[in-house]
Write a structure and sequence with these properties.
YbaK protein, alpha+beta, disordered N terminus, 2 domains, 5-stranded mixed beta sheet, 15 strands, disordered C terminus
Length: 285
Amino acid sequence: MAGCTLGVTRREGVADMPPGKGKRKVYTVGPDPKGGWRGEARGSTRAVAKGDNKAEVVKRTIEVAKKQPKAQVRIKGKNGRIQEERTYPRLIARGASPPNIHPARRRTKRGPTGIEGVVATSLVTDRLTELGVPYEVILHEQAYTSIDEALALGISADEVVKTIVLDTASGHALAVIPGSRRLDISAAEMALGTKHVRLATEEEIEKDFSGYELGALPPLGSLHGAPTYVDPEVMQHDTVVFAAGTQTESVKVRTEDLFRNEPVTTAPLTRLSADDEGLPNGTER
């Protein structure tokens, strides 16, 4: 199975598909023989969506599918193989916990959900497939921080990497560090070779990295068009886990595979975590 040899391809809801009258209408998004991407219902030659932008085609196809009493959307990669399957009404695959949104944070949660979340994860897995990186997609409870993500997955925080958006005079840059560490701005300035480096604001991230939930930006500089700097501690792990564009889905990959074809710079970027230093939480994911 292309692009997914660390685990099975995600097929949400398939295992727990409930009994009932009526079949699910199946839609497929895949390469269009005439170029670009095409979404269509099974048994029909008429496209429900098509275009050069896969994310938009996926989004429009899902919008059509969600109007059906029961539907399934199969998303293919450039090689024509199914990478993801989504069922609607949405179900959680057997063994996975449903997303848990804390009532106090439900009103303040920002970022895309639903259709946009599907698109974000699809963009990440598509890019990994293009890079020839084997990966495993893991569903988990909603996690707002890398520490929460580690707890939801039952792993150590230093096995999770977080991607921090930096603002510089020449534009945005990405800093990739272990979830158990905090960014050291002075170290970041030294790595970037420039002064006046600061953390990008939530508003800037939402504007310039639209389509990804806050705190869930993947460490793929080539996907975002931003120079990427990786702390050496990240490279010490055989495998790492990172948010796949949403707060309820993560990707596990071999570290060497992830950065082999990515134009990254390795440089010290961290200090002790907020808990170790007694610093307030919330300023970094």
